[in-house]
Amino acid sequence: MVVEAPVASLKAVYVAEGYENNPENHAVLAELKTKCDKANAIYEVVADNVFKSVSDTQTPQGIMAVMAMPEYSMEQLLAGDKTHLLLLESIQDPGNLGTMVRTGEGAGVTGIIMNKTTVDLFNPKTIRSTMGSIYRVPFYVTDDLGATMQALQRQGISLYAAHLKGQNSYDEEDYTKACGFLIGNEGNGLSDEIANLADAFIKIPMEGQVESLNAAISATLLMYEANRQRRKSN
Amino acid sequence: MVVEAPVASLKAVYVAEGYENNPENHAVLAELKTKCDKANAIYEVVADNVFKSVSDTQTPQGIMAVMAMPEYSMEQLLAGDKTHLLLLESIQDPGNLGTMVRTGEGAGVTGIIMNKTTVDLFNPKTIRSTMGSIYRVPFYVTDDLGATMQALQRQGISLYAAHLKGQNSYDEEDYTKACGFLIGNEGNGLSDEIANLADAFIKIPMEGQVESLNAAISATLLMYEANRQRRKSN
Predict the structure, then answer these.
(1) Interface test with chain A among B207, B217, B218, B223, by most A beta carbons within 10 Å
(2) Between chains, do B210 and A133 touch, taking CB under 8 Å as contact?
């Protein structure tokens, strides 16, 4: 992930001594040094015990970077008719959030909107789960998800809420125009307040005795259904 | 999950004292006692510190059960023309495996087949991630995944491998007849040996710079595409 970092936001790279001493890593480190030069960023080798005490993982890989957090305006998440948003209410699991960012990039979302009570996008576990997509998927954290939804709707973006009360299956709506999908908290789903602002409820059919799916799994099915429809309509 | 346990496999229930003393839990415990009577299972209240030392979680919920592990023959995973299998090679993350079992039940799989180097289905984290689906989804652990695949193919079951070399998108094949989906290890994907035994490679289209999706996410898209096609063809 450090090798993939955009030059513009790279501030510093720290390498563990043991990592540097392994000849297998020399090619990667040469690439990183060049990158740091271009970025005018610090490049420093530190003792293994120092590296370990700074890292938040049990078995750190040996490279660490300091980067500027990206910031986007709401406008940067919109792409006219092609707008494809994921809107998250109070997602709590960092791995779930990171997986949604990664899958969102794959499905072609134009941005991800989160309320303030969603887990921090810059939680180390979230960042790792994005597998680099954190660098590329525009996001926006809103103080007032309801007001943000209404602003999007005024711009003609249809918002769909994954909801047990949905009449139509998720594959029975048309997502070829500007749209967004609302996914709620892992334990409680969407709040009534937010769900009721959606243009439509949609349901994911479930067989057996399954009552709900994991939040990242639900988001995947909706985002990739939009992707599928848009591929077919081209 | 303990409340949902099938009576036939319930052997013992242990309840933490603190949990039993909370009046809010009396209804659940009454239901569990009745279940234990029916199952001829042990029901025992234990001191909180004993409960905590036996539990593998930091903040145990207060109910624990001992259950017989279900066992299935390969035949129990097959449903003629409706066969819909998930075949896993060396999945390592217990949460990923559990999520696949849960989502698999939702998508209507008739069974899940794993090779021996897939993480233990009875890993506590896997069991929790299944959200109860572990009780209901037939599974089979094979010593020789390749030989198992060939046996399935002889019965007319088409096996599709999610693979970067796939020609067709996953939504361009017909899954309305007996079929199965192969998902490989999180880091390395499917081994060549296993992938080459598949009837066809399929790819999941990915936008941006995404190179692969999480294993459970890929499995979800394939299993639900089969679900979608089968719903439409009814």
Answers:
(1) B217
(2) yes
Residues from chain A contacting residue B108 (CB–CB below 8 Å): 207-208
CB contact under 8 A, A105 and B137: no
Does A81 lie in the same domain as A110? yes
Evaluate whether residue B213 is within a structural domain: yes
* Chain A residues with CB-CB distance to B223 below 8 A: none
Cβ contact A202:A161 at 8 Å: yes
Q: Are residues A51 and A130 in the same domain?
A: no
- Digit-coded pLDDT (tens) for B15-48: 999 999 999 999 999 999 999 999 999 999 999 9
Please check whether residue A145 is in contact with residue A168, taking contact to mean a CB–CB distance below 8 angstroms.
no
Residue A225 falls inside a structural domain:
yes
Amino acid at A122: F
Quote the ipTM score: 0.93
- Range of the structural domain that residue A187 is part of: 74-232
- Comparing CB atoms, the residue among A136, A204, A221 nearest residue B209 is A136
| Beta carbons within 10 angstroms of residue A160's beta carbon | 22
Confidence of residue B58 (pLDDT cuts 50, 70, 90): confident
Indicate whether B1 belongs to any domain. Answer: no
C-alpha–C-alpha distance, residues A109 and B15, integer Å: 46
Domain count for chain A, please give it.
2
**What pTM value is reported for the model?**
0.94
Partner-chain contact B106 A213, CB within 8 Å: yes
For residue A99, which of A66, A137, A71, A73 has the smallest C-alpha distance? A137
